[in-house]
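The protein record minuted underneath.
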Amino acid sequence: MLDEGQLLGHEQRVSGPVERVLALKRLPIVNTLSGPQLALVADEMSERFFPKGTVMLREGEAPGAVYFPIEGRVHITRAGRLLGHARPGLAVGPFHVLARDARGLGAVAETDTVALELTTERLNEIFEEHFAILHRIIREVSRLIVEQVVRFPKAAMLLPGVSPGPATPARDLDLVERIFFLRRAPVFHEASISALAQLSRSLTEVRFPAGTWLWREGEETGWGSLIVSGSVRASSSRGHEFVAGPGTALGALDAMAVVPRWFDAVTETPVVALQTNMQALIDVLEDNVGMAINYLSVMSRWLLVILDRSLAARERMQKVYGGEPEPEAEGRAAEAAAGSDPAGRLPLAPGESP
C-alpha cells in the first residue's frame, strides 16, 4: 500500500489554474491539446503534499498516477537502481501510465514535496467522456514513434521477426475469419467481439501481385493495411530496411500520426491484406472507448521501448522518466533504464510495426 500523501484543499494549494495548464504544456503528448482541453485536464488534477520518505510510486506495480512536482525533489528508481531525481518542471512517468507498465517505477519523496497528481482513474474518465482528447493523445504517441524511428533507423530493428504466414487464401475472408484475425493483433487483444465486428465491416480485402508498389516515401497517407498473407519490403532514403509480414498493420502508424509515408513499400510476394482508411478506424475507436484505451496502451508500450533504446541518457531521463540523472550515474543510465537483463525490457508485442 502506498503512502498517498496529504490531499491539499483549495485554500492550501500552491498552484493555480494557470500553473497547472503550464505543467501540462511541458508534456509533448498533451501540449497540442486546445486551451479548453488543457484546462479540462488540469481541473482533474489534485495537489498533494508528500513528507520526506513518502512512497509515491512502487516498482513492480503499474503506476497509479502521473506526478508533476511543484516543490521539492523526488528520487526515481527502475529495476532496483537509482535513475535520478525529478524536480519542478518535470513529470514523473507519464508514458508508463499510458502504457500501463506492470514493471512500474520507484518514486520516493526525497524532500518534503508538493506535486500535482493525475490519477489513472481520472485520466480514463477523461478519455471516456472526451474522445477528442484520447484521439489527440493516440495521434501524438504515434507521431513520437514515427519521429524516433525516422531519426534512428536502427530502431526498426526492434520490429519482431516475421514468421511464415498462412497460404494465400483462395477466397475472401468472411466476417468470423476477419474477427479472429483481428483478435491476434496486440492492439485488439482485449476488444469485444461487437467492436471487432464493427471494425471488420469497415475493412476492404485487397490482393496485390509481387512487385506492386504500395506507396513511395514522402507520399500523403490516410490508410493502412493489415497483412493477411505474403510479405512487403520497406526501405527509405535514411537507411531503413525491413520486411513486413502477416499480422503487420502496415502504414497504420503514419496514417494515425497524420504524417507522410516515411518509407517505400513494395510487395515481395503476392499479398492479401485488409485495408481501411484511418477515419473508419477512428470512428470505431470512438464507439468503443475501451478498445481505444488499450490501443493507446500498446502504442505507448512500444514507444517506451524505442525511447529507452534510442535516446541519449540525459534526454531519456527527462522525456521518459521525468527526472535528471545523477552525475555519477549518467554513464550507466542506459543499463539502469532498462534493467540489467535485456530480456527484462518491455517487450515489443507481436505484430506491431511502423
Q: What stands out?
A: The radius of gyration is 21 Å. The chain has a mean pLDDT of 83. The first strand starts at residue 6 and ends at 7.
